[in-house]
Design a protein that fits this description.
Helices cover about 70% and strands about 0% of the residues. The protein is built from eight helices and no strands.
């Protein structure tokens, strides 16, 4: 089974788990974009500054997330947390490739080195601190899962806040659809992480 297909299989229960209802709808009733198709989606030329800002901020954000989930795959004590981290990695790598492709098509920078400045320039949305990310590599093994979950819960909530900005002010249809998918998938991940924290 290849990595992208694995991402679809692994993320299905996490997304469905966010439903909160007694009866979950069949997978067929919840159409999603397969992970293997994400990087091939084209956004078209029509866009505005909000679309560009959203993709730049979220791309930087996901690079941070990939660093954190890489650490979690190596250090998590819970097998369920390792599985979740692997699933998030697979999905976000494909999303990152897609976002970078769209930015290139729009002749916009794909490398954003000053995330705190970027956040401040566009509404002051908080970012995950470098010191917090590095701390995950040194925290005691027995405390890792709790430390990671606390940090990554906030991190994924930030992604949802970024997507709200795009849904409110963006112009590009595919970027707005992507923002909706970010809302749905991150909510599912947050619900799964809360279950792990309370389990």
């Amino acid at each position: 089974m290849n990595r992208r297909l694995l991402a679809v299989v692994l993320l299905t229960p996490f997304v469905l788990g966010a439903c909160g209802t007694a009866k979950e709808a069949p997978v067929a009733d919840k159409p999603t974009v397969a992970a293997e198709a994400v990087a091939e989606i084209k956004a078209g030329d029509e866009h505005n500054d909000t679309d560009v800002m959203f993709l730049q901020m979220l791309a930087y954000h996901q690079k941070q997330g990939l660093r954190m989930t890489t650490t979690a795959v190596e250090r998590a004590q819970s097998p369920e947390l390792k599985t979740l981290a692997q699933a998030i990695q697979a999905t976000e790598k494909d999303e990152l490739a897609m976002m970078q492709s769209w930015l290139e098509d729009w002749n916009a920078s794909t490398e954003v080195d000053q995330a705190p400045s970027l956040h401040a320039d566009h509404g002051g949305l908080p970012g995950t601190g470098e010191a917090e990310i590095k701390a995950l590599t040194t925290v005691k093994a027995a405390s890792f899962d709790t430390a990671f979950l606390n940090l990554f819960l906030a991190h994924q909530h930030q992604a949802m806040e970024m997507s709200k900005v795009e849904l409110t002010g963006g112009k590009n249809g595919e970027a707005k659809k992507f923002a909706e998918r970010v809302q749905e998938s991150r909510q599912g991940e947050i619900q799964q992480m809360l279950k792990l924290m309370n389990g």
